[in-house]
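Hi V.,

Quick status before I head out on leave. The structure for the redesign project is tokenized and pasted below; the design run finished overnight.
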């Protein structure tokens, strides 16, 4: 029996409002394989800390969707799905451990 390699494109999506430390922890835990891209739907107020986290050099592609302030979880998830070009999307909360 041979070895089969399955190649699929996978994105991880999360919605963030103001928990920059939780977002940073989540992003630091992402393995660049099998995750090709992380999509962050951000409906919180701008902050220097959040800008630092989102502009860091990550080992995966990072897409930030700047949303209307307090747009909500449903709007954030819809925006992630609308942005999706990968075959699969894992949606996680920023406080997932």
């Amino acid at each position: 029996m041979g070895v089969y390699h399955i190649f699929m494109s996978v994105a991880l999506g999360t919605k963030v409002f103001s928990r920059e430390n939780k977002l940073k922890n989540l992003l630091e835990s992402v393995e660049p394989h099998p995750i090709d891209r992380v999509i962050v739907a951000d409906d919180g107020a701008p902050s220097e800390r959040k800008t630092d986290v989102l502009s860091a050099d990550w080992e995966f592609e990072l897409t930030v969707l700047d949303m209307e302030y307090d747009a909500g979880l449903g709007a954030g998830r819809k925006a992630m799905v609308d942005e999706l070009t990968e075959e699969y999307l894992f949606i996680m909360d920023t406080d997932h451990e």
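Above is the designed sequence. The mean pLDDT is 90.

G. will cover questions while I'm gone.

Best,
W.
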